Amino acid sequence: MEVVIVRYQVYGLAHDPLPIGIAGLVEAIPALVVALFAGHMADVMERRRLVILSRAALIFSSGGLLALSFLMPQLYPTTGIWPIYLMIFIAGAASGFLSPASFAYHAELLPKELYANGAAWNGSVWQTGAILGPTIGGLIAGFASISDAYAVDVVLTAASAVLVFLIPARPFEPRMREETSVQSIVAGWRFVFSNQPILGSISLDLFAVLFGGAVAMLPVYASDIFHVGAQGLGIMQAAPSVGAVLVSVLFAHYRMRGGVGKQILLTVAMFGITILLFAITTNFYLSLFFLVLYGATDSVSVIIRSTVLQILTPDEMRGRVAAINSMFIGTSNEIGAFESGVAAKLLGLVPSVVFGGVMSLLTVGAVALAAPKLRRLRGEELVG
Q1: What's the distance, CA 225 to chain centroid?
Q2: Residue 256 falls within a domain, yes or no?
Q3: Contact 193/199 with Cβ under 8 angstroms?
Q4: Is residue 163 packed enough to be buried (19+ CB in 10 Å), middle (13-18) or exposed (0-12)?
Q5: Confidence of residue 305 (pLDDT cuts 50, 70, 90)
Q6: What's the first-to-final CA gap in the chain, in angstroms?
Q7: Between the CA of residue 141 and those of 65, 216, 231, 315, 335, what are the distances in Å?
Q8: Residue 126's domain spans which residues?
Q9: What b-and-e string marks burial along 110-125, b requiring 16 or more CB atoms within 10 Å of the CB?
Q10: Which end of the chain has a smaller Cβ tally under 10 Å, C or N?
Q11: What is the band of 213 on the pLDDT scale with cuts at 50, 70, 90?
Q12: What average pLDDT is seen over the chain?
């Protein structure tokens, strides 16, 4: 909900795609800054507690956005978008801690043989929320007000923290280390760069998502291309998640078999193609179809990649590897939004999205050549 509400509010205030991109950059910077330290923390402290604390910070950020929804009409002439950027900055820092902590915590809750199923169900449930969120957010913002939409966002953000709190706590044994924090962080980077399947899959998603941030420009498409308003924007924002949920349900019993590396490469290539098709269509309903395919192909890649990372990463290093992964992947969504905003400003909306699709396809070819171990990776090698 918050993503679509913020983007809609920012574009409504500025009437310019560039501030939408800047909002993504403002969220990405703190997430990048804290990610390495957060990964170390997730490997030495109780992960459940770190997840809860991170979500508490997100509650504060959401509450701040709710307050600003009442104040921005008066503040904007003198402050511009910066008060909103401040709340987004806090959310980015909280997400920087939450991502590696959640990734590592998930592995504590499931046996190894259920990692793939867990990734599929986790993705399906998350994407269901991602469908309902933008749709509800857009409808509430359109038919009621932005403030009402933010109020619902605050309630649901608080509920998420409570639900994690309700998971029974487990006895925690402090992970004592002889190495310093810096040595611990360096060890995580060495592990990732020495493991070509992990590095290749992370890099693939980094550049594909970085240049494939078409979703960030949906407020502009909804307003200037299709003229469908906040309600239509909510539907467009939800369309990728519809595809993702459908695929996640199909993958609920996924088994790591066959050419896993080739599957990742193929789905990211299809991801790039759907961006190109979306960019050139002028029909609203056809664009929704391509957005569904966009989400479906992205979801397959995420499920397979998440399972590969869980299996190939030892437990004592999950937090650090997840932090590096979030630096590559998580923040690439926000930086990708910034890239999309800049490209749209310089090239125009449609050419900028076409450029992103082409670059995603070129990324697949580059990674396929540079990471042969990923290309030849088979599921049987992972699960035996």
Answers
A1: 25
A2: yes
A3: yes
A4: exposed
A5: confident
A6: 41
A7: 14, 18, 8, 43, 26
A8: 2-168+181-383
A9: beeeebbbbbbbbbbe
A10: C
A11: low
A12: 82
Classify residue 176: in a domain, yes or no.
no
Q: Which is nearest to 181 in space by CA: 49, 44, 53, 48?
A: 44
Residue 175 lies in a domain: no
CA distance linking residue 121 with residue 26, whole number of Å:
31
Q: 286 or 36: whose pLDDT is higher?
A: 286
Mention every residue, 6+ apart, whose C-beta is less than 8 A from residue 166. none
What CATH number does residue 197 fall under? Answer: 1.20.1250.20
C-alpha distances (whole Å) from 296 to each of 103, 293, 303 are 21, 5, 11
Q: Is residue 252 part of a domain?
A: yes
Whether residue 263 has pLDDT greater than 60: yes
**Prediction pTM value:** 0.67
Distance CA 291, CA 277 (A): 9
Q: pLDDT class for 252, splitting at 50, 70, 90? A: low
Cα distance between residue 200 and residue 299, in whole Å: 18
Q: What's the chain's Rg over C-alpha atoms?
A: 20
